[in-house]
Amino acid sequence: MNHFIDTFFNAQQILATWPAILKGVVVTLEIAALVVVTGITAGIGLAVLRWLFGRWIKWPLLVFVDVARAVPPLVLVLLAYFGLPSLGVDISGFAVIWLVLSAVLTAFVEEIVWAGLISVKKGQREAARSTGLTEVQALLYVVLPQALRLAVPPLTNRTIAITKNTALGTVIGVPEIINQATTAVSFSGNATPLMMGAFAYLVLFIPIIGFGRWVEGRFAWRRH
Amino acid sequence: MDILFQQFFNLDIMSKALPLILEGLKTTLLICLVVIPLGILGGILVAVGSMAKSAVARRALALAVDLMRALPPLVLLILIYSGLPFLGLRLSPLAAVSIAFFLNNAAYYGEVIRAGIESVPNGQWEAARSTGLRADQTFVWVVLPQALRNVLPDLISNTVEVVKLTSLASVVSLQEMLYSADMARSLTFNNSPVVLAAIIYFVMLWPVVRIVSRLENASAK
Amino acid sequence: MQSAASFLPSRAPGAAAEIQSVEPLLRIRDVSKKFGSLEVLKSINVDVSPGELVFLIGPSGSGKSTLLRCCNRLEEATSGSIRFDGSEVLDPKLDVNALRRRIGMVFQSFNLYPHMTALSNVTLALRKVLGKSGPESKTIAMAALERVGLAHKASAYPAELSGGQQQRVAIARGLALEPKMMLFDEPTSALDPELVGSVLATMRSMREAGMTMLVVSHEMRFAREAADRVVFMEGGVVVEQGPPAQIFGPDAQPRTRAFVSNEDR
């Protein structure tokens, strides 16, 4: 038992490693925040463009959306990280993770918001247009708010799932939580940093998961 | 433009890497064959457990599920693969992957299936019980089939995620498709093998992704 | 097949102009509409004079709703002319949003915005189309809600209102823009029978206030007592039009009589 505690919850190790883990937490939070803002904004933007100019952008849009949803994010990460430099684009691991996860989130958000948009009854748009609102006004004030309300639960879940992929950064050396933890393990030969890393993720994500549950319950209740 | 083709769509390199990548694909499919049924089974157990009479059991299960949902799958995998040896348990990569993904998938499938069970009206239980079926018979023959059907789009899209998840196994040196492709990349200093792997993933999953979109948009209307 | 106009000796376009000294507010001439190869409107001629309440009746699929929706360009007519208040509705260069603020529309399914209060439902177009200030649009909207008897429900959400109340808010939404005319597309068909009366009462008071209205509806009794003119359509053509006494009387066309007696049962 003592050996177990010594290996996984070693006080000395905790003292020695926590600054590194904390740095990792900051990096993870930075990437997560950037991904959430970029992905949700771009995803809603694309759904709006598809609504307004569907004919023109539907096919290129669907190719992007389907590739981003069907190819594992780690494949895209490796492609961007090793591929872009060979094209002369100098890009950091941090930027790769941000861009790839944002692209993936964008694709999912676009599909979720689109499903919301087409589920709003046709009469809503017609009623808005019949009072003289333009197509853009009808979308922004009448259709989109209703679509987003429908989209909130799946959006929340998908955003959480993709944000957790910040951990993929460790594969290309981004100093986020799990990267800091595994580095510390290899130096110390002790599993304590791993437990600290896992603990850091739990502290970060359990409140978010709780928030997701709350959103789901609240909006499911609203619909009845 | 030339360099783009040279670096990403180099047919010569692709054809040389193909046997290696197909070998990896076999392992990828093997992982899928292990983790998808295990995950669904675990998910059913989680869903049944979340209907337990004991409030303590329900709370404990909900907490476990939340823990699994809060840990990124890669973190869970590294924890099991690199952590357990410190306890003297040295797992093969495939075993580590199976355990990690079972824990992760059971939590996610569990959420989906629970929603499905809740969507089956209570009258179905009552009708089946009134014909003399036991509770377990009612669950297996009446409730579960309807539940799975009601959440089919979510089940399928979760399964797509599981297939994509198998690429993480490359991180613990399990020689599945991405591992093989990345190895070929580092040997040839060329990205085409990874592009080829991406294409194979896309070809496998694209029809499924389209079906999910179709189902979701149909239910939205 | 005879042209529709030949069925109406007393109300043919030329004759109508003699009888009605005022220029019609809405003048539908030779309007046709095709969906692919399906011709749902065949050379329709209908006039609506200022202050008139005109009923469009007919079996489902007769084209009456399509005709109504062509009047504010929710549907595009294939050919013909619709003149409204001095401008050509079918002119591709026409500003449809400007047109629509002068023509109100009420839908069968109310189409209130569920995420907004009754008041906000009414003020949205006042603010965004007419560019009025918040307080001003609120004053106008409250007056409109007052006219339909629902000022006390201003802060209620659509889900908290009965069907009849929702439809009256939808009417207020149209009225608030002070349109010259209002279109009603089966305004009472989605309502429980006991709620129909309140909506019809609102329409009656609008008529007394001089509003011009074109109504698609199955409320035959209301048509009989409140309409100035009734237009009977079937299979995409106007079979007959005239005052209620004519349409509901013994001398109506056989097809009209068959439809009316069937509806009255």
Describe the structure.
- Chain A: The chain crosses the membrane at residues 20-49, 61-84, 96-120, 194-215.
- Chain A is an all-alpha fold and 224 residues long.
- Helix content of chain A is 85%, strand content 0%.
- Chain B is mostly helical.
- Chain B has one domain: MetI-like fold (Orthogonal Bundle), CATH 1.10.3720.
- The radius of gyration of chain B is 21 Å and the shape is globular.
- Chain C has a six-stranded mixed beta sheet, sandwiched between helices. Chain C has a four-stranded antiparallel beta sheet with strand order 2-1-4-5, with helices on one face.
- Chain C starts with 12 loop residues before the first helix and ends with a helix.
- With 265 residues, chain C is α/β, with parallel strands linked by helices.
- Classes of the chains: A mainly alpha (224), B mainly alpha (221), C alpha/beta (265).
- Chains in contact: A-B, A-C.
- At the A-B interface, helix 1, helix 2, helix 3, helix 4 and helix 6 of A face helix 1, helix 3, helix 4, helix 8 and helix 9 of B.
What does the secondary structure layout of this molecule look like, with pairings?
The complex is a heterotrimer of chains A (224), B (221) and C (265).
Chain A: H1 2-8, H2 11-70, H3 73-86, H4 93-119, H5 122-130, H6 135-164, H7 177-188, H8 192-223
Helix pairs in contact in A: 2-4, 2-6, 2-7, 2-8, 3-4, 4-6, 5-6, 6-8, 7-8
Chain B: H1 2-8, H2 11-49, H3 55-70, H4 73-83, H5 93-119, H6 122-130, H7 135-150, H8 152-165, H9 177-188, H10 192-220
Helix pairs in contact in B: 2-5, 2-9, 2-10, 3-5, 4-5, 5-7, 5-8, 6-7, 8-10, 9-10
Chain C: H1 13-19, E1 26-35, E2 38-48, E3 53-57, H2 64-71, E4 79-84, E5 87-88, H3 96-102, E6 103-106, H4 118-128, H5 134-147, H6 163-175, E7 181-185, H7 193-208, E8 212-216, H8 220-226, E9 229-234, E10 237-242, H9 244-247, H10 254-264
Parallel strand pairs in C: 3-8, 3-9, 6-7, 7-8
Antiparallel strand pairs in C: 1-2, 1-4, 4-5, 9-10
Helix pairs in contact in C: 4-5, 4-6, 5-6, 6-7
GO molecular function, one term (chain A): transmembrane transporter activity
GO cellular component, one term (chain A): ATP-binding cassette (ABC) transporter complex
GO biological process, one term (chain A): amino acid transport
Tags for this model:
heterotrimer, A: mainly alpha, MetI-like fold, 8 helices, C: alpha/beta, 6-stranded mixed β-sheet, 4-stranded antiparallel β-sheet, 23% strand, globular, disordered N terminus, ATP hydrolysis activity (chain C), ABC-type amino acid transporter activity (chain C)
